[in-house]
Amino acid sequence: MNYHKYYPTDVINGPGTRVTLFVSGCEHLCKGCYNQTTWDPRAGHLFDQQMQDQVIADLKDTRIKRRGLSLSGGDPLHPQNLNSILELVKRVKNECPDKDIWLWTGYMYGELSAPQQAVAEYVDILIDGKFEQSLADPSLRWRGSSNQIVRDLSDKNQIQILEIDE
Ligand code: SF4
Hints:
By secondary structure, this protein is of the alpha/beta class. It has three helices and eight strands; from the N terminus they run βββαβαβαβββ. It has an eight-stranded mixed sheet, with helices on one face.
């Protein structure tokens, strides 16, 4: 997997202070996409073992306490990203169990493939759906257009849609 940007301290993408990774690779090609340079899975930099270790180290850092990890892009659930993302989210939940994982994807939760579902098992909050320019609304919280849905997956027996716009 390649990544586009890594922010070890981020207060924009999700609640609280977070670690945020924007991965490369997206096949949704939404009109009006804010991040077209991430579409090519070969763009950006290789997400290697050293980077994975860095994410874990930043989440464990007690000097700046992070609430969790945000995964965006690009699309973390792009088929070419799934192995690396699964490895990462498993490691986060094993080594940093008090941290939450937020993930933004253009795929719809109900249509995820089995390998995508395997990643979702480790995700606490999933924001799904393509960006629809005609439904774009800058006042929305954590999403760009009103068709996108914020789902709380933290209890897999009781998945909830969150209404969190102010
Ligand atoms: S899913 Fe996100 S990154 Fe992919 S094209 Fe749509 S807005 Fe851009």
